[in-house]
Amino acid sequence: MGPEHIKGRGGQDGSASDDTLLDRELLDWPAPLRWREWILRVEAVIFASTQPVSREQLQRVVGKTCSIDLLIEDLIEDLRDRPYELVAVAGGWQHRTRGRFAEVIRASNAPTRSTAAKLSQFEAAVLTAISYFQPITRNELSKLFGKQVSRDLIGNLRGAGFIASGPRSPTPGAPYSYITTKHFLTVFGLETLRDLPDMEALEDAGLLGRHAD
């Protein structure tokens, strides 16, 4: 897999189009070297970004006719023996440290690029409920947990960028509902909401129970 999948730049004849100016210098490179350069460029862009990098953003540095999926496959293979990996998150790709190194990183006490906010157990439970039952109102959340979900708690989750206002509820007073954001997917390493864990497992773990503190 790799160079044999390269298409001509800007068309089958290999001519460069206006949207691939960055890549013109590679037109005369042998196919294997050009493919390797594309992989390095993709890795550099993803490494430098603090947010998941979308397919459209990667196409800007390799051109629209180059297969991003095949480049990603080869890059994942290149990183197989590295302490970090490439993961699909929130509609893009991002570097993540492999789980088996988490304890070592914590022990070092070194600053990390993690953007995860520190949530209380109850805040985490409310965020989990929103992710599964969205759009959901604050009153509905209070009924779900059997105790008041405060405006301050909702404000904390909004301030952390995990939730946003959703459509108004058809219930009396038409309160706003709440939904999760792309930032939520990014921080928790999810490509889409379909990647959420099984709800029954979370209930068994007490994350959706009515008595979280």
Automatic annotation (TrEMBL):
Record key words, sorted: Cell cycle, Cell division, Chromosome partition, Cytoplasm
Q: What is this protein called?
A: Segregation and condensation protein B
Asked if the Swiss-Prot or TrEMBL record annotates the protein with the keyword Cytoplasm, the reply is yes
GO biological process terms, alphabetically, are: cell division; chromosome separation
Query: Does the record carry Cytoplasm as a key word?
Result: yes
